[in-house]
Amino acid sequence: MFNSIFSKKENDLDGKNFKQKFETTDKAELIDVRTPGEFSSGSIPGAKNLDLMAPDFQSRVQKLDKDKTYFLYCRSGNRSGSAASLFEKLGLKSYNLVGGIGAWPR
Question: Where in the numbering of this chain does the Rhodanese domain appear (predicted)?
Fold first, then answer.
């Protein structure tokens, strides 16, 4: 029982694997799900901001291209993990950066 609760999800990747998969995936899009304030204080180059806490987040996600693969991150990996679950429910392929922006290899 506990194994299913605490098990690592298939789409959760550490920094090295996340970056490598992002760089080698066709039609990959990098999305920062932090607030606009957090995003403006520094982000991974090339990332787009899609604030998980915005009231229109789900409707914006529903309009995304289902042919793309989305690479999601936040500060710690919690919000992007929640976002990745929503993406999955909506039929979108996504990966979560475990450990958040700080785990992105420099």
Answer: 24-105
